[in-house]
Design the sequence.
C-alpha cells in the first residue's frame, strides 16, 4: 500500500531515522477496549534493544516507548495509537565518511541514487533501528490477539548463524536463556565461540530465523493477493537485510514429490482434522488451516565491517572502505523479536478482516459498563 | 491491497474460476498512448497455455484473450483495460468426488473452512488457471515497459525440477527450445526422462524458477514497506503453490560472512558503478541499484495425484483420496511465464511511482498529433 | 484508492467505455453464502437503463447483466464477482465531430489534455453508461445487506429538476409511478411539461437527488478519514456530472445556530435514543447514530445540447458547437438508481469493516450443510 | 483508504486526542529535496491556533510544531516526516459531565455507540484540535507545491457566517486583516457584531468557506473514482463538523440549463483555452482544466452551547445539557486554514500521481551536488 505503511485493517506506519531525535509508529485500526500500557509494550522492546551483550551493537539505547494517543484509562479507544521512542545515544560524528563513500552491500548507494539527498547518519531510515517501531507495533498486536484469539502463541528463534545451523534436539525452554534465541544450549555455546571469532576479526555473518504461530484459527487469509502467506512474505521481506522467506517446507518444496508433500489428514477425537505432517506450514491456498503457521527468513550479514572492500565515492572516485562505528556482528540476532512482531501484526490484520474491527455495536445506552 | 488486487499505481484485479464461463483481469493504471493489441498479449498467453505437450495438463484451452476496454485505435487510453479469457474445455463431472473429499496438500479444505460454500470444480479460484489472467496483465506491463524503459528485459527459466537441479553451463538460447524453459539442452533431456517416470507412476514433483530482469533503472522501490523486494516477494508468493521466495543470494545469505556478501564496486568507463558480484540480486535497502534483479521461487508439487493418501470428508469421515482428472505432473513448469509476468507488473508499478502515470500534461491544444 | 476502484473491504472496480464491446465491474469482498442471480441484479439495472421513455436518451440498450464468476449454485463464494454488460446499440458515427471539437461543460477537453489519446466515442469512460456498472455492483451490495442488516432500506428520489423543486407533501408510493422518481404526482406532471419544453428547445437541465437509508445500524463509519459521510461524499461526487453533496442539513447548516442544529434526544420505549429532528442526516462525527442516513447531490445539466456554444478544436481553432446524437435532456433522472447503488455499496463496506467479511470460520467439518 | 490516513502517493496519517499529551501526523510520500523547516510550518499553524481573539476558544495553545523525522540539513529526504504538536493547556476537569451525558449534535453519542470506550476529554479525537495536524501536513504540501508547481496559489476565506452572507465586492487584500478571513471590511464589521451577540447569548453559528486554487496545471485527477473533485469532496467532508461540499456551481448546478452551465471556450493569445465563466469550478470529468479550482463547504454550528437542550445519559436517563468549557462560537472560522491545507494535500497527491514521487533517478555518481 503506501510506502511506510503495512496492513489493511490493522495498519502500521513507521517513521524516524537512526540519528534523528526520535522514531516510532502510528498503529491504526486496533480494536477498542484492549488493555494496553507502556510497560506491556516495553517488555517486547527490551528483547530487541541493543547493547545488552557483546554480540550486539554497543550503542546504548533505553528504547523507552511512550504512548501518545489512542489509549485512555488503560484501554485502547479504537483511535490511532502513536508510539514514540526517543534516540539518546546517537554519535553522528562516527558517520562522517559514510556521507561520501558507499559501503558495498549497504543501502546507502541505492538511497543516494534514488533520492539524491539522504540522511546518512547511521544509515538513516535503512538502519536496524527502524525495527524498534515494528516491535512496539507488534506489542499492540499481541495485546489485541490475547483478547481476540486467546490460544494463539508466537515464538521466534534462530535456526542458523552463518556457517553453523541449529543442530540436535530443540529445547524451546532454552530460547530465552541465551543471547541468540536458539532452542539449544549446546548450539548457543558453539555459536558464542563462532561469533566471538568473527567479531574479533572485524567480520560479520548472516542468520536464519524461524517464527512459529500456534493456535492460529483456521480461515485466516484470502485468495488471491491477500493470501496469508503473501502478506507474511511481504512482512518478513520488508525487514531490513532479509533476502529470502519460506513458508513451511519453503524452497525445499521444489525437491519433493506429491506423495511426500501431502500432509495426510485424519480425524481427531473432536471430529476435527489432524495432520500427519506440516509441509504446508499451516497455510493452504493462502488460508490458515489450524496447523502451526511456520515462517523462516534469512538475514544477510551486516555490511558495515572492518575488512577493507573496494568501493566508490559519491563524487566518482574509486576507493576502499572500512566501516568503524558500532555495529552488530550478526544483525540477524535482533531480527528474532522483529519477526515475531511482524507475525503478530499480519495475523491480527487477517483476523480483523474476517471478524471486523469492533464486531458490531459496542456501546449500548443503559447497559452496564 | 484488496484481496484480488495487486499493485499501487499499476493495479491488476483478477477474477474467475477454473470452471466458470470465463476468467480475466482489470488492468488499471496503464499509462496512455501505449501500443497494444490482442495479438501482442496472446504471444505471452500461448507460452503458459495448457495441453501443449505431454508434461502439462491435457485440458485443451485456446486461452484466447479479448480486450474489452481501455484500448482505442491500437493504443491504450489510460482507462482500465479489461481482459477476458473464455473457458472452453471444462469437464466438471471429473470433480464430483472433490466436492465431498479434501485432497491433502490442496487448498480445498482451507477454502471450505473459511467460506463454507465454495466452487469445488477444478479448484475454483485456487486453480492454476487463475494465472492466465496474470500472464495477460503481464503482457500489458511488458508493453508499457517497452515504451518507458526500453532496455529492460525479463527472462524466466527453471533451475530445479524435483530431485534434479539445473546443472552445467547455462545456455540462454535453449530456454525456448524445450518444454521446461531450462537453459540447458542436457538438463532438459534428463528432466524429460525423470518427469515421464513420475507421470507414469501417477506422481508429481515441485520446481524452482528463477526470473531475471536486466536493464532495470536504479532507484525503483522505496523504504520501508514499499521495497522492491517486498513487492516482488508478495507477488511471487501470491502465485498458487509457491512456498518460498529468494532475492539474489536468498536463503543462502544466512551462511555468508560480511566480506563474502559485499558486492565490491568499481567505476565503469562511463563513470557509473560496476559491481564485482551480485549477492544482492540487484536490490539494496529495497531499492534497485541498476544490477540485474534476480528472484527465485519454489513451487510445491501438484497435490492432485494418483497415489492414494489418507484424508477426510466434509461430513467428517476418514477416507483415502486418489485424484483423477487432468493435472500437471509439475505445475511449476507453467509458473515460468507467470513469474515473468509478476516481475513485469511489479517493475512497472514502481517505475510509475517514481515517474508518474502520465509524466505530466500529454495533450496540448494546437500541437501536432 | 486506485483510480477505478472504490471501497476498502467491499471493493468495486468498474471498466468499459460507452462504445466499446462491453462494460462491467469486478466486485471484490462480497461475503460468501449470499443468494445471488442475474435476475435479481437485472431488476436494478432495468430501473436505470436508457430508452424507457421520452425523457431519457433514445439509445436502446438491454443492459443485460451476466455473472461471470464468484457465484456457484446460486450463492456467492466470497471470491470476486465479475459482472458484464454488453453494449449493443452504439452508433459511433454520430460522434465524428466530437473527436476534433470540445463541448463546453463536457469532460472531453480535460481527457484530451490529460491523456493526449482518448476514446471520444460517446464520451468513452466519462459517459453515463459507466454508471450501469455501479448499479450492478449496488445490486450485489443490496443482496448482502438484505442478509446482514435485514431492516435496512434505501430509497432515492428527485427533489429538483432544473428550475422546479419538489413541492407539496411527499408521497413515497408515487416514486415508482412516474419517470422522474419524484414522490409527488403533481410535481411529476409539472416536471413532464417542463422537460418536454426543454427537450424540444434542444436544451437540458440539472437535477437534485436525495437518497435515504432507513434502518442503518449505529456505529458505521470511523474517525477521521474513514468517516461514513466522507465515503458517501466521495461516492456521490464520483458519479459523473455531480457538483455538490450534502449530508442532512447540508450547505444550509452554515445558516443555523447551535440551538437550531441540535437534534434533541429523548428515550424511546426500548430505552434507546429517539431524536426530535435529523439535521445531522444520521451521522455524527462520521459515525451512524441509527437515525435515517440522508444524502443529497446535485447533477449538472447535460452538456451535449443543440444550442450553439463557442468552443475550440483540438488543433487550435475557434468554432461553435452543436451536439447531435442521442442524449438525456436531464441526465440526473437516471442518477437516482445510481445514488441508491452507491449508498448500498458504502454502507455494506462499513458494515464489513465492523463485522468482518466472514464473521469467522464458516465451514466446519462434520457440520450439517 | 485506512481510517486515519488520506492520500494515495502523498499520504497523511493523523493521530492524537484533544487532551492527550500530543497530537500530530506522519506525512509519507513527500518528494525528496524540498526545503522545509519548523518555522515555515509554524506560519500556517499560527493562522489556525486558538485563543487569538475573542471569537475563538480561549484555550491557549502555542501549537508549536516539531519535525521529528524525514528532514535532514533543511531538506526533505523522501522518507516519512513526523510532525508533533504538544498539548499544553488541557483542562480535563471541565469535561467531567460529558463523560456521562451526550451533547445533541455532537459526536460523543456516536463514538460511545461504536466503541463503548472513548476518550471523552475535549471530544477526544472528534475535537477540532485534530485539524492542527492537517494544517501542519498542508504546510509540507505547500512547500512541495512551491517547488513543483511554482504558479500555484491557494486562498481560503469565509463566505457566510450563520445568518449573514459575504456581501458586496470582494477585496482579497482584506482576508488577512480581520478575524474571519472574509474578503470585505464591511462584512467583517457586520459579522463581528453578530458573533458578539451570539457569544454573549451562549449560542453558536455555522459557516461557509470557499477555497480557491489558482494556477493548477491541467490534467490533475483521474476517472472514475480518483477524480480530483471526488478526492476534494472526501477531504473537505472529513473535516469535523462539515455537512456539505460543492465544486464550482455546486448544489445550484441543479437549477441550471445546459446553455447556462456551459463555460464557453475561446483561444487566448498563447493559443491555449480561455473560458468565459467557471461553473465547472476548474474540474471537468474529474480532471483539472487549468481554470481556478473552486471548492466550498459548510460547517455546522458548534454543538457545545450554553442554551439547555434535551438529552440522555449513558446509563439511560433523560436530562438537559448545558456545555460549559471553552468553545468556539463559530468553529467554522478556524476551518479556513484547514480547508486550504486539505486543498494543498489533494493537489500535491494528484500532481505526484501524474509526475511521480521523484521524477526518476535523482542522485548520479560523479555529478555536482
Sequence:
Amino acid at each position: 500500500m503506501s510506502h511506510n505503511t503495512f496492513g489493511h485493517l490493522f495498519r502500521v506506519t513507521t517513521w524516524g531515522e537512526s540519528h534523528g531525535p526520535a522514531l516510532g509508529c502510528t498503529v491504526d485500526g486496533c480494536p477498542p477496549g484492549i488493555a494496553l500500557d507502556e510497560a506491556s509494550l516495553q517488555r517486547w522492546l527490551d528483547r530487541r534493544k541493543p547493547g545488552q551483550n557483546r554480540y550486539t551493537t554497543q550503542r546504548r539505547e533505553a528504547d523507552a516507548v511512550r504512548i501518545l494517543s489512542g489509549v485512555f484509562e488503560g484501554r485502547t479507544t479504537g483511535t490511532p495509537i502513536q508510539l514514540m521512542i526517543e534516540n539518546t545515544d546517537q554519535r553522528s560524528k562516527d558517520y562522517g565518511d559514510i556521507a561520501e563513500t558507499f559501503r558495498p552491500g549497504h543501502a546507502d548507494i541505492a538511497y543516494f541514487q534514488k533520492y539524491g539527498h539522504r540522511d546518512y547518519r547511521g544509515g538513516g531510515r535503512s538502519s536496524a533501528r527502524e525495527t524498534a517501531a515494528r516491535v512496539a507495533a507488534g506489542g499492540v498486536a499481541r495485546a489485541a490477539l490475547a483478547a481476540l484469539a486467546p490460544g494463539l502463541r508466537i515464538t521466534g528463534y534462530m535456526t542458523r548463524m552463518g556457517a553453523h545451523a541449529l543442530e540436535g534436539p530443540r529445547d524451546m525452554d532454552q530460547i530465552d536463556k541465551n543471547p541468540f534465541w536458539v532452542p539449544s544450549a549446546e548450539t548457543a555455546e558453539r555459536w558464542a565461540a563462532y561469533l566471538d571469532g568473527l567479531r574479533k576479526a572485524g567480520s560479520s555473518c548472516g542468520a536464519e530465523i524461524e517464527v512459529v504461530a500456534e493456535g492460529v484459527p483456521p480461515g485466516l487469509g484470502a485468495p488471491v493477493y491477500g493470501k496469508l502467506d503473501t502478506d507474511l512474505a511481504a512482512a518478513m521481506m520488508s525487514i531490513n537485510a532479509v533476502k529470502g522467506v519460506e513458508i513451511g517446507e519453503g524452497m525445499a518444496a521444489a525437491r519433493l514429490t506429491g506423495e511426500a508433500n501431502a500432509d495426510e489428514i485424519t480425524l481427531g477425537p473432536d471430529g476435527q482434522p489432524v495432520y500427519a505432517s506440516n509441509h504446508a506450514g499451516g497455510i493452504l491456498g493462502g488460508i490458515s488451516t489450524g496447523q502451526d503457521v511456520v515462517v523462516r527468513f534469512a538475514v544477510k550479514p551486516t555490511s558495515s565491517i572492518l575488512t577493507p572492500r573496494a568501493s566508490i565515492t559519491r563524487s566518482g572516485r574509486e576507493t576502499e572502505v572500512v566501516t568503524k562505528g558500532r555495529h552488530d556482528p550478526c544483525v540477524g540476532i535482533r531480527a528474532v523479536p522483529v519477526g515475531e512482531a511482524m507475525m503478530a501484526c499480519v495475523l491480527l490484520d487477517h483476523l480483523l478482516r474476517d471478524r471486523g474491527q469492533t464486531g458490531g455495536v459496542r456501546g449500548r445506552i443503559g447497559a452496564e459498563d
